[in-house]
Amino acid sequence: MNITTLEKIGVVVRDLDRAIEQHATVLDTTEWTTDELTADRLSAMVSYGRRSAGTYRTAYGRAQGTVPFELVTPTGGETPFHEFLLSRGEGIAYLTVRAEGTDEAGIAAHFAALGIPVAHTHVVDGGLRRTFWDTRTALGGYLLEVLPAPYVPTGVTRTVDGAALRGGRPALPMQRIFHFGVVVDDTMAALEQYRRILGIETFAVKTWQTEYGRLDNPYYRDLRPVEHGYFTAQGATGDFGFEIIQCTYGPAHYNREFTDQRGPGIHHLFPYLTTDAEDWSGTVTAMTELGAPLCMGSDLRGGASEYAYFDTFGKLGGFLIEGVHRRFPAEDRYMAPDWEVDFSTLIEED
Length: 350
Fold this sequence. Notes:
Layout: E1 2-12, H1 16-27, E2 31-37, E3 42-47, E4 50-51, E5 54-63, E6 67-77, H2 80-88, E7 91-100, H3 104-113, E8 118-124, E9 128-133, H4 136-140, E10 143-147, E11 156-159, H5 162-166, E12 179-183, H6 187-198, E13 202-209, E14 219-220, E15 229-237, E16 240-249, H7 253-262, E17 265-274, H8 277-289, E18 294-300, E19 305-310, H9 313-317, E20 320-326, H10 332-335, E21 339-342
């Protein structure tokens, strides 16, 4: 299955109207297509092989015209959105991706061959079928919706003045999704699943820990410095990527405020990278004033760069946003991964 494009980041929220305003404020998502999916518009609904019924509201928008979000508020019954909200709270419940060169039958055959069942399916307005594949155990806490063609939003257009809501402050820059940060129990076990399902063949593996050249001076909330570490692997498919993260020791947002509360899942997005110190400083100041200060981060690679998470968890719907400031080129010894996983070298068993 040839994944080419990220079509939607599916965020389940309690209050759709509030979430729209917060996304407009923080990310400058000003143009939305909203829709209310009532019982008379939904049919052929099946959850885990059972006939079910449910309703929901949606809002689709592209942050700064680039990063696509679908916000969903369940309004009753059994849907994957309602299940996620009641069992895990707000957060990224699914990713919608496009697979070029196939059709719905080919997509279904791909998942059937892997033994991955449908978690939920329904038909909108007697025509459009939405199917969510149950990749939660395999990929780390989220569903996949796979489309054979580009997503075309339908509904009512709503415009929100994000600049006015920010009071003249700049929005958090959104360039593209460099990666989704997915926290899992076992990084190495997850990689095979990302290969099978999403076709990712290579991963750069690196451990990060409180040590000069890796995490030079990490902090988490008011713990400065903090002793912690995590084991990661990065790979890409289509126009986006993944960072698979396993906590190894110490307190971090990954465990204390995420997996300890809800288990594995998509913890953050990484859409913002800059080499401009003034741009970085201005963004941090603006986000702090808007109620999304830095909550975890560190200088990296001998001071060559800095990564940090903006605390958008309560504002945008259960996820953080990562930014990176690259100050100067790092030495090769600090840039290199610990090793690379290359699935093209798999040895077939006799």
